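Z., the sequence and structure:
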Amino acid sequence: MLTGAVATFLARVAGLFGLKISGFAAGAIVAGLIAAALGASGFKLYEMGRSAAEAECQTAALQSQIDAANADKENAQKAAAEAKLKAAGLESRAADEKERTADYVKELEQRAAKAEADAAAAHLPPPVNGDALTCDDLRGMRAHLPAVCGPVPRPARASRLHVPRLGPFFKAKR
């Protein structure tokens, strides 16, 4: 009924401008306008849904980037803490080595002084700098060890009893 009233109104307005439109044509025009309005509102709803979904997807992507950055930050903090611990350990080890080296130098100086005193007491010429060294001092220097302290002890070889036996497929050919 409303469509018929609108079609009649449309036919009269067109008549004012000198156009003759039948009732059927006016109804078709009204139906076309209604269809266009419904199509435009449907498209608007579709665009609203699409933009909402796109915003939600972008939010999820940004959140995953934030989570990855936080994980990287935590890993970097853990690595920094481990590096600090390693550095502290290395510094401690270096300080210990420095202290042991200083003690060893003092011991060598004391040995040299004692060797000089012993030589002076025995009316011998003063010893050369290297005379205060012992085999224990040269233990890490394999090149000089045989010349001063004799042959270097080698680990014992494994006896034939410890060699695994080969199976029947690997017997020696005669």
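The chain has a mean pLDDT of 80. Helices lie at 2-16, 23-121, 145-149.

Let me know what you think.
H.
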